[in-house]
Design a protein that fits this description.
The chain is an alpha/beta fold. It has a domain at about 35-85. It contains four helices and three strands. It has helices spanning about 1-20, 40-55, 65-75, 90-95, and strands at about 30-35, 60-65, 80. It has a three-stranded parallel beta sheet, sandwiched between helices. α2 links the parallel β1 and β2.
Length: about 100
């Protein structure tokens, strides 16, 4: 239950980070990254629904495995990733 609560709060947080400065009728476009596992698919679907229906934004979803999706995210090609497993990104997240 704690995992579900934390995941939901993460989705809400990232949605507000991306769209926090837009009004509900703003024309915007958000690019979501979706991984190839079930829990990420659910989180991305929920975030996509919230962004499209709550904010009226166009949503584009790119599906893929961890490495290409995170590379696109760090490169700025993807705006939001709804689920990240830190253990999969140890080298990328280490302070340099």
């Amino acid at each position: 239950m704690k995992f579900i609560k934390n995941t939901f709060l993460s989705i809400v947080f990232f949605t507000f980070v991306v769209l926090g400065s837009t009004s509900s009728k703003a024309a915007c476009s958000v690019h979501l990254g979706d991984f190839d596992w079930d829990s990420a698919n659910i989180h991305t679907a929920i975030a996509s629904f919230m962004i499209e229906n709550g904010y009226g934004c166009d949503v584009e979803v790119t599906k893929g495995s961890t490495t290409p999706i995170m590379a696109a995210f760090f490169d700025g090609q993807i705006d939001v990733v709804t689920e990240v497993w830190e253990d999969n990104l140890v080298e990328l997240l280490k302070p340099h």
